[in-house]
Amino acid sequence: MDMPTELQHQAMGYDRAATMFSPDGHLLQVEYAEKVVKFGSASIGLVCKDGVVLVADKRIRDKLIANESAHKIFEIDEHIVASAAGLLSDARVLVDIAQIMAQQNRVTYNSPVEPISVIRTIADRKQMATQYGGVRPYGVAIMLAGINKGQPHLYTTDVTGNYTSYKANAIGENDEKFKETLRKDYKENMSIDEGIKFAMKMFKEVLDKNFELSRFEVVYVKMDEGKLIRLQGDALKKFSK
Predict the structure, then answer these.
(1) The pTM of the whole model exceeds 0.85
(2) Is residue 159 a contact partner of residue 27, using CB atoms and an 8 Å limit?
(3) In terms of CB atoms within 10 Å, which of 38, 94, 97, 181 comes out highest?
(4) In this predicted model, what pLDDT tens digit does every residue of 33-70 receive, in sequence order?
């Protein structure tokens, strides 16, 4: 009986280094890292007519954890936020790099950093981890949302170091289910409030009996204000009706 291709690659050692291509052109350590992302809790990002919003499932299962101390959406600057799926410890390191870059931009140029510059820096760091020996790929996908010159922007970078701009996207567990709904029902003219309700409705349909408001965190940035607003807990009740 023939051995499956993936097992052949493992037996021949093609998955032992992030820099070693298999005969059919795969970086197996990178593909393993992509599987880690699929196990991470989900986040949904939406570009709305009046701004941009991220809705994230914190998936806290231990009642001993202080809910307000666990964040799934990170502040990069007052006008840029990011969420992650996969290894959040990897995400924290990349977020630290992005935060430093944002602050250096304000000090050097006296202006807020552009979201595309931040996502490019994160993507470049991820790509380096697939090119050099002695390191492993970052096991995390990052979704970044922000305002630049009065316009909303949403980007996602995968474990390979690619990044793409989106109108709406989802990362993490059940991402394909969310994307199917987004492709079908997402409307560019929805407001931030409508976008939050839309995202919470999707989470309710997918999580079913596991849906609890305490699991979620919402951050949005309005075009006219350019500053992030964070919602969680009881503040989300009006969006889940």
Answers:
(1) yes
(2) no
(3) 94
(4) 999 999 999 999 999 999 999 999 998 777 777 766 77
β 80-86/73-77 pair status: antiparallel
Answer yes or no: are the C-beta atoms of 26 and 9 closer than 8 Å.
yes
- Closest among 144, 137, 88, 139 to 121, alpha carbons compared: 144
Distance CA 195, CA 47 (A): 8
